[in-house]
Write a structure and sequence with these properties.
10 helices
């Protein structure tokens, strides 16, 4: 059963066949698969880099303020929930907390989707139109490695052939542009909130341990950690980190409950989570660079 007492059973999550949100979700993945190429991902890395002279901070705000800016955001790639993202974030964090996991993992549960704040600066060509309800194909959804063959373990695998890199001999083999055992930290993933938040955490010098950083960076990489793809690319460390990601993802996925939390309940929880923010960020609850 779901970890929060939802009526859904585990096998009923990640329904990409006939969910109530099927048309929205399917369109999201159609756009994502045809648009996320090596060229596009490199462009996004350059645009959303941190600390470069030509890319000053887009904003300075606290994590709590960032959550306010995400009010109303609903993930168009998610077949399981139509709740605002802040509710899902607190559901995840509280599920981890109630299971007695480490406090840094609780914090990861809270912030793991905060990279979706990118929508504030998005443009149509970025796959994020600058609104919480517009196109999101470079914000959310299961990510895959660009620069090598797209595996059949992706959801909607029949969309794979629409990717321009699939007909490019530099990129359409098992290794593509990579070397064997190069490590998942050295490949380019389809760009989205995972990578953006990972880079944001590094830029703000978080002390969240490496397991938590892997959870942030790869929690959407279902073709890898759940589908068994990219074994020829992963390092020995990746195999160990995969266990941590899978442990985290059961809370990310199975705590989704349409009953949600009330905003009053969320407000009551903030003091505890602000204590964790203060512990794992050098600037505490002051403004961070976004």
């Amino acid at each position: 059963m779901a970890l929060t007492g939802s009526e859904k059973k585990e096998g009923e999550f990640r329904n990409y066949v006939d969910s109530e949100r099927q048309s929205v979700v399917e369109q999201h993945y159609r756009d994502m698969r045809k648009s996320q190429t090596v060229e596009f991902v490199r462009k996004m890395h350059a645009k959303y880099a941190f600390g470069n002279a030509d890319t000053p901070p887009r904003a300075r705000m606290t994590i709590r303020e960032a959550f306010r800016r995400l009010d109303g955001y609903v993930d168009s790639s998610d077949p399981d929930s139509s709740l605002p993202n802040i509710i899902h974030s607190f559901q995840t964090a509280e599920g981890i907390r109630k299971a007695g996991k480490e406090d840094w993992m609780q914090l990861v549960g809270l912030i793991h989707d905060m990279g979706k704040i990118m929508y504030l600066w998005g443009e149509a060509e970025d796959g994020q139109s600058g609104t919480a309800t517009g196109p999101q194909w470079a914000l959310g959804g299961d990510t895959f490695v660009v620069g090598c063959a797209i595996p059949s373990s992706c959801v909607f695998p029949h969309f794979n052939e629409s990717n321009p890199d699939a007909s490019d001999e530099r990129y359409n083999s098992e290794l593509g542009m990579y070397s064997a055992a190069c490590g998942m930290n050295n490949v380019l993933m389809a760009y989205g909130h995972d990578e953006y938040l990972y880079q944001m955490l590094i830029a703000n010098k978080t002390t969240i341990p490496i397991e938590g950083l892997y959870m942030v960076r790869f929690h959407s990489a279902y073709p890898w950690h759940t589908g068994g793809a990219y074994r020829s690319l992963q390092s020995d460390e990746d195999e160990e980190m995969k266990k941590s990601i899978l442990d985290f993802n059961k809370f990310d996925l199975y705590t989704k409950d349409e009953k949600g939390l009330t905003m009053d309940e969320v407000a009551d929880l903030w003091p505890y989570y602000e204590s964790l923010i203060a512990k794992y960020f050098p600037c505490g609850n002051s403004e961070l660079v976004w």
